[in-house]
């Protein structure tokens, strides 16, 4: 049931693409055919090999084996420039825009042709390029100001600039890598409309995603990848597909193919009620965050959800003392810690699994021993004053953590960088749990981890909860939130716009809160938070 | 319910999960088995062997690259090599001179390495050394106290002088984000001119009898000669003590851990409660203090007075000393000794083979160059061994230096 | 005081700022492309030396300039290999350039001339007066103090600004410095651009050195650049990596130098040695009174490797 007559050559045909990164077999003999003028979905979980495949298509990495055909002609791209030349445009997951440049400068950079001497002498005609950009933008309804500096644009607008950039280069085929990952639902909807319009104009689109609704909404055909191999394909544009029952059946089947198993069993958790541990009132940084009230009790996992950049990092930084609060209070077990240094807060029982492990969680160049001892260098048994820090005790700690959390390889002296991401994270989680935290802030603790490490981290968090600690879980992964959280709060523009308990979890409502399509950051629905304890001494 | 408020941990005790604490205790009481000990020793020997290999290869490559210039000067290689070894090791006197040269190189090398461990490029050790020497020389010449106290005051003053020279770069880095490379270099030039002025004919500290120098420090207050008949002075003890002290500070104290953590990842340091601004100040001030100590020891041990050109560029060669030792304080005694051999051998080589002393600077530069490209070389050789396949682990893991450089932190 | 502030003070300000301006332009190009270059001092020294050697060997000072360009190509090429191709640490690589530049030039003087320290005189670039311009009113006499070489140096400021800020090549270069990954995705050959920028910085710094050795003077002396390569770096930082402001800062350094020189001639009261520290102190004060934090191109200092 192809959209095109079968004789017409496919826009893209990949045959037998194979790629290894060391021990990881990222792509296993992948075949993929994309009909021109269609939206083709590439569905798979994180690490399934989607991005690698598309980077190979775009000439950014080179396949170990396999063939690429564009419009029926075999090609080999040695660089992304050659792929661009062949009419393929790619919109990366991480934007490849330059914040310090204007939209127009981003569009024209690297495009000019002609001799080096000419390009060194001739003035770039920015006004003319901007006019052209405006025309292109108007034609497809982008609504982008070509003179705006990219760093001032919203994430959604930058996504559009990326697409504009690809079209500017004459791309007839667009590859979009998780384009809605950082967008709010209305922004995503705008993007879908734009993609529909592009398809109508004849552009071929490959959409990398792991979001089912998106795939179902947009794609004509979908290919499912798992563990680097194609595990299935499905047609989504036939007449039968109009029937909801059929759609649901196909959707369930696709999910099954994508994850290769049924929905994971959730460990049964008895609701417990612990004492109030974290009590935040009127917290604000005086800029874009807050004022915000939040309570977390013992034996409770409270998830903080919201579109990225709506105050999650600010909340964590304010709680950790890494950002200055201008007003409000933060009480841990009744101690107001608002004026305390990060060090003192850690001592008071706050632990923190950092959102970006490489930026703030670990030191890649240091050994496991040094990484395990971050935050453990004051006080017995590790140090006996400012002039002695015991290596032996730190080594024992490291070995204990390695054993308890099954960190592989089990060697304490090797540099952190020689561990896989999952094992690094296991050590970090072990380190933070070893502080016997009253409150653990676990910011996206499983981002980028494989299935095994993810469940190990979740188990550790649930154990901590069982032990009576409070856990705050800022997460972008709603599946994770549904799996382990007792409650959730939704952040938008630095304020809590909705609260739910596990029994009430409902994705549509959360989506409306996240997107702000339900009123302004106002009281929100009846607050199931903080029932009775108000006797905390402050 | 909230009446059960858990107490904050006792002062002086780390906040630690009791289960982990018990596990630690259990491991603590388990004696180290012979097998485990053997394995540990084997690991250490292997690391040590690898480091020694890197050391020798870096040095060998640098010398090889310097060779064409030796040949250019028309020197006979055999004669040159002989002159070099005779000049640096050939007699008691030569050996003592080499050790004398080693003292400032070792201390200044420690100064450079200390800042590098904190991820900071203190290129201003030369200036700190000059300030330290000047302060020590002035105190020694002007103060009238007992010799032992004077020695102590001179050394402390030298440290303070060096730290003072590092103060402005430290504050600018910590609070304004100005890259320390630019500021420490500026201080080098300021130090040179301030020193010239201090002992210029109209300068405040110039000796009446000797132009461009301060008055002599009383003989009893100088660092005593510890090898009869040579110039080798007790500054050697100060240098070795500084070396052990720096090692201890970096690897066996909480402060050192924080500094190394900041060097490896400032973000992680900040998140774990380390004040990066304060650590930046501490690191640069300690580093500057060491630089100042190098100058003071040189003034007190060798010349007995400060004069304007008393440093033979030790602060610059110290960069090579520190990098050749891969920033290890203990290995630095080897690299400092090697550069000291170059310095003392150069005198003989100049006399016998007509080779300029400046070749030492060339070798320093080449050593620094080879250290800079070390990660690439390790990466490449690893690739060749693996049959040109891409590496499995991040190649940056091969880089041993804590230099998350470049960014203005 | 009136005899102190004269036309020749302004003229010497211009003369003294040229050997800071040229390496500043080089450093700026280099850092805007994403490579930290604290090796300008070593590059200047090798340029000053190369110029003197070629002028000495050929007897033609113009070929001396060619020698400076050649040594700039070599020192810039070395830094490019170390810091761009082999992705070595950029600060350490350029420190090596400084040490090698200072050591090698000093070591080669006795090998070539048989004497230590300072070379004998070599043919210097003749002062070519400007045609016509000195007849202009008011600024005419000032222009009369300048030679063609000075004018060419100042023209380079405009040329670098034009290429960097107004042309496609400049946009590519700046893109590499702001985000190498983004530039790569746009099909820009990041490695090639950076290598070119580093080599060009070597040539510009070397010309700055040659200005000292065969335009201002007619000899080479060990460490004759006196930290001007580092002043250039400070000017670039204080000018926030922009050509115009950095150029003005260089003029400020030139003025400080000129004042120190004239003070030496006119008065015995002031401590000359301290006056010579003036440009460096000025640089420190400038950096201390910086408005806002100093931040360069976003990707400067980060070696580029394709993911």
What would your notes on this structure say?
The complex is a heterotrimer of chains A (538), B (409) and C (307). Chain A contains 18 helices and 20 strands. With 538 residues, chain A is an alpha/beta fold. Chain A has 3 domains: 12-259, Rossmann fold (3-Layer(aba) Sandwich); 272-349 and 437-538, P-loop containing nucleotide triphosphate hydrolases (Rossmann fold), CATH 3.40.50.300; 361-435, no CATH class. A 6-stranded mixed β-sheet of chain A has the order 6-7-8-3-9-10, with helices on both faces. Chain A is globular. Chain A starts with 11 loop residues before the first strand and ends in a 23-residue tail after the last helix. Helices cover 68% and strands 0% of the residues of chain B. Chain B is built from 15 helices and no strands. In chain B, helix 4 (92-117) packs parallel to helix 8 (235-252), helix 5 (125-142) packs antiparallel against helix 6 and helix 8 crosses helix 9. Mean pLDDT of chain B is 87; it is low at 1-7, 388-400 and 402-409. Chain C is mainly α. Chain C has one domain (7-122, 148-288): Orthogonal Bundle (ABC transporter involved in vitamin B12 uptake, BtuC), CATH 1.10.3470. Helix content of chain C is 69%, strand content 0%. Chains in contact: A-B, A-C, B-C. At the A-B interface, helix 11, helix 12 and helix 14 of A face helix 1, helix 9 and helix 10 of B.
Keywords:
heterotrimer, A: 538 residues, alpha/beta, Rossmann fold, 3 domains, 6-stranded mixed beta sheet, 18 helices, 20 strands, 33% helix, 22% strand, disordered N terminus, disordered C terminus, C: 307 residues, mainly alpha, ABC transporter involved in vitamin B12 uptake, BtuC, 13 helices
What is the strand and helix layout of this fold?
The complex is a heterotrimer of chains A (538), B (409) and C (307).
Chain A: E1 12-21, E2 24-34, E3 39-43, H1 50-57, E4 65-70, E5 73-75, H2 80-85, E6 88-91, H3 103-108, H4 116-121, H5 126-140, H6 155-168, E7 173-177, H7 185-200, E8 204-209, H8 212-218, E9 221-226, E10 229-235, H9 244-259, E11 276-284, E12 292-297, E13 300-305, H10 312-320, E14 327-332, E15 335-336, H11 342-347, E16 350-353, H12 357-361, H13 368-372, H14 391-404, H15 421-433, E17 439-442, H16 451-466, E18 470-474, H17 478-484, E19 487-492, E20 495-501, H18 507-515
Parallel strand pairs in A: 3-8, 3-9, 6-7, 7-8, 13-18, 13-19, 16-17, 17-18
Antiparallel strand pairs in A: 1-2, 1-4, 4-5, 9-10, 11-12, 11-14, 14-15, 19-20
Chain B: H1 18-29, H2 34-72, H3 77-89, H4 92-117, H5 125-142, H6 147-176, H7 180-198, H8 235-252, H9 254-264, H10 266-271, H11 276-303, H12 314-324, H13 332-353, H14 359-372, H15 374-385
Helix pairs in contact in B: 2-14, 3-4, 3-13, 4-8, 4-11, 4-12, 4-13, 5-6, 5-7, 5-11, 5-12, 6-7, 6-11, 8-9, 8-11, 9-11, 12-13, 12-14
Chain C: H1 7-32, H2 40-58, H3 61-85, H4 90-113, H5 140-144, H6 148-166, H7 168-178, H8 180-185, H9 190-216, H10 228-238, H11 243-266, H12 272-276, H13 278-288
Helix pairs in contact in C: 1-6, 1-9, 1-10, 1-11, 2-3, 2-4, 2-9, 2-10, 3-4, 3-9, 6-7, 10-11, 10-13, 11-13
GO molecular function (chain A): ATP binding; ATP hydrolysis activity
Protein name (chain A): Simple sugar transport system ATP-binding protein
Region (Disordered) (chain A): 513-538
């Amino acid at each position: 049931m192809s959209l095109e007559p079968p004789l017409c050559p496919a826009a893209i045909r990949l045959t037998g693409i194979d790629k290894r990164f060391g021990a990881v077999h990222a792509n296993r003999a992948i075949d993929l055919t994309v009909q021109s003028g269609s939206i083709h979905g590439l569905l798979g979980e994180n690490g399934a090999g989607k991005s690698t495949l598309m980077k190979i298509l775009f000439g950014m990495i080179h396949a170990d084996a396999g063939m690429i055909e564009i419009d029926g002609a075999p090609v080999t791209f040695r660089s992304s420039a050659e792929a661009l030349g062949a009419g393929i445009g790619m919109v990366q997951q991480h934007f490849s825009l330059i914040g310090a440049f204007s939209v127009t400068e981003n569009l024209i950079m690297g495009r000019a042709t002609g001799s080096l001497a000419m390009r060194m002498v001739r003035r770039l005609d920015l006004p003319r390029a901007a006019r052209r950009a405006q025309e292109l933008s108007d034609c497809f309804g982008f609504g982008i100001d070509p003179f705006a500096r990219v760093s001032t644009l919203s994430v959604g607008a930058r996504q559009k600039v990326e697409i504009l950039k690809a079209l500017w280069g004459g791309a007839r085929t667009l590859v979009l890598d998780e384009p809605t990952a950082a967008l709010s639902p209305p922004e995503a909807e705008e993007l879908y409309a734009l993609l529909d319009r592009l398809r109508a104009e004849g552009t071929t689109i490959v959409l990398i995603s792991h979001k089912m609704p998106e795939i179902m909404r947009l794609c004509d055909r979908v290919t499912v990848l798992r563990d680097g191999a194609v595990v299935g394909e499905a047609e989504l544009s036939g007449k039968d597909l109009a029937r909801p029952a059929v759609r649901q059946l196909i959707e369930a089947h696709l999910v099954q193919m994508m994850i290769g198993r049924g929905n994971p069993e959730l460990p049964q958790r008895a609701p417990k009620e612990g004492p109030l541990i974290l009590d935040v009132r009127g917290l604000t940084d005086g800029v874009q965050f807050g004022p915000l009230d939040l309570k977390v009790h013992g034996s409770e996992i409270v998830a903080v959800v919201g579109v990225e950049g709506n105050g999650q990092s600010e909340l964590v930084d304010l709680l950790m003392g890494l950002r200055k609060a201008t007003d409000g209070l933060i009480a841990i077990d009744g101690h107001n810690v608002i004026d305390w240094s990060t060090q003192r807060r850690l001592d008071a029982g706050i632990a923190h699994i950092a959102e970006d492990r490489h930026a703030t969680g670990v030191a890649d160049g240091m050994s496991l021993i040094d990484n395990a001892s971050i935050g453990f260098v004051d006080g017995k048994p590790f140090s006996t004053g400012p002039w002695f820090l015991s290596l032996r005790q730190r080594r024992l700690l490291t070995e204990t953590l390695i054993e308890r959390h099954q960190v592989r390889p089990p060697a304490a002296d090797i540099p952190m960088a020689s561990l896989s991401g999952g094992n690094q994270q296991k050590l970090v989680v072990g380190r933070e749990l070893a502080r016997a935290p009253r409150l653990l802030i676990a910011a996206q603790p499983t981002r980028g981890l494989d299935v095994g490490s993810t469940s190990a981290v979740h188990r550790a968090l649930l154990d901590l909860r069982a032990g009576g600690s409070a856990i705050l879980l800022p997460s972008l992964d709603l599946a994770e939130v549904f799996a382990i959280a007792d409650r959730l709060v939704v952040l938008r523009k630095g304020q809590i716009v909705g609260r739910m308990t596990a029994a009430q979890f409902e994705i549509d409502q959360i989506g409306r809160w996240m997107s702000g399509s339900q009123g302004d950051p106002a009281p929100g629905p009846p607050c199931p938070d903080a029932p009775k304890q108000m006797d905390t001494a402050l | 319910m909230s009446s059960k408020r858990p107490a904050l941990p006792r002062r002086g005790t780390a906040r630690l999960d009791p289960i982990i604490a018990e596990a630690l205790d259990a491991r603590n009481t388990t004696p180290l088995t012979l097998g485990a000990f053997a394995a540990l020793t084997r690991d250490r020997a292997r690391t040590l062997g690898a480091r020694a290999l890197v050391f020798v290869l870096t040095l060998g490559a640098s010398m090889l690259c310097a060779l064409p210039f030796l040949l250019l000067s028309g020197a006979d290689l055999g004669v040159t090599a002989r002159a070099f070894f005779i000049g640096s090791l050939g007699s008691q006197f030569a050996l003592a001179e080499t050790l004398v040269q080693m003292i400032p190189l070792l201390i200044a090398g420690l100064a450079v390495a200390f800042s590098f461990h904190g991820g900071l490029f203190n290129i201003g050790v030369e200036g700190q050394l000059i300030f330290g020497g000047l302060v020590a020389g002035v105190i020694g010449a002007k103060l009238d106290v007992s010799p032992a106290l004077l020695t102590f005051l001179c050394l402390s003053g030298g440290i303070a002088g060096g730290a003072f020279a590092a103060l402005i770069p430290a504050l600018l880095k910590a609070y304004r984000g100005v890259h320390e490379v630019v500021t420490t270099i500026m201080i080098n030039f300021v130090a040179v001119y301030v020193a010239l002025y201090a002992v210029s004919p109209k300068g405040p500290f110039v000796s009446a009898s000797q132009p461009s120098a301060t008055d002599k420090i009383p003989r009893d207050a100088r660092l005593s000669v510890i090898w009869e008949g040579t110039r080798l002075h007790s500054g050697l003890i100060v240098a070795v003590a500084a070396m052990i002290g720096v090692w201890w500070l970096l690897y066996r104290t909480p402060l050192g851990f924080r500094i190394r953590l900041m060097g490896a990842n400032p973000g992680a340091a900040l998140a774990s409660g380390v004040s990066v601004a304060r650590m930046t100040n501490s690191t640069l001030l300690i580093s500057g203090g060491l630089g100042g100590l190098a100058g003071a020891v040189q003034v007190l041990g060798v010349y007995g007075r400060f004069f304007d050109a008393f440093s033979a560029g030790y602060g610059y060669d110290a960069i090579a000393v520190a990098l050749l030792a891969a920033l290890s304080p203990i290995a630095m005694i080897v690299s400092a000794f090697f550069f000291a051999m170059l310095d003392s051998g150069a005198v003989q080589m100049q006399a016998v083979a007509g080779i300029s002393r400046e070749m030492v600077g060339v070798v320093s530069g080449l050593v620094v160059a080879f250290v800079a490209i070390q990660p690439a070389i390790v990466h490449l050789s690893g690739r060749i061994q693996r049959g040109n396949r891409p590496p499995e682990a991040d190649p940056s893991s091969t880089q041993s230096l804590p230099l998350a450089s470049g960014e203005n932190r | 005081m009136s005899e102190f502030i004269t036309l020749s003070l302004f003229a010497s300000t211009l003369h003294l700022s040229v050997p800071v301006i040229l390496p500043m332009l080089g450093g700026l190009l280099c850092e805007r492309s994403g490579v930290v270059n604290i090796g300008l001092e070593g590059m200047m020294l090798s340029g000053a030396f190369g110029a003197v050697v070629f002028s000495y060997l050929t007897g033609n000072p113009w070929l001396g300039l060619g020698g400076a360009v050649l040594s700039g190509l070599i020192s810039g090429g070395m830094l490019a290999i170390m810091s761009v191709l082999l992705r070595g640490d950029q600060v350490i690589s350029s420190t090596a350039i400084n040490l090698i530049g200072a050591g090698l030039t000093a070591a080669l003087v006795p090998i070539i001339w048989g004497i230590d320290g300072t070379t004998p005189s070599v043919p210097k670039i003749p002062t070519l007066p400007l045609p016509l311009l000195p007849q202009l009113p008011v600024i005419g006499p000032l222009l009369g103090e300048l030679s063609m070489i000075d004018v060419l140096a100042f023209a380079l400021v405009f040329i670098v600004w034009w290429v960097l800020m107004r042309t496609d090549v400049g946009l590519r270069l700046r893109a590499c410095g702001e985000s190498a990954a983004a530039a790569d995705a746009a099909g820009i050959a990041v490695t090639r651009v950076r290598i070119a920028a580093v080599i060009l910085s070597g040539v510009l710094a070397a010309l700055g050195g040659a200005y000292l050795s065969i335009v201002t003077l007619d000899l080479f002396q060990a460490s004759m650049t006196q930290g001007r390569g580092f002043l250039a770096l400070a000017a670039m930082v204080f000018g926030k990596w922009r050509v115009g402001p950095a150029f003005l800062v260089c003029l400020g350094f030139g003025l400080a130098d000129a004042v120190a020189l004239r003070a030496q001639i006119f008065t015995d009261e002031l401590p000359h040695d301290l006056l010579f520290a003036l440009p460096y102190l000025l640089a420190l004060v400038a950096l201390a009174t910086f408005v806002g934090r100093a931040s360069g191109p976003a990707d400067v200092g980060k070696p580029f490797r394709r993911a």
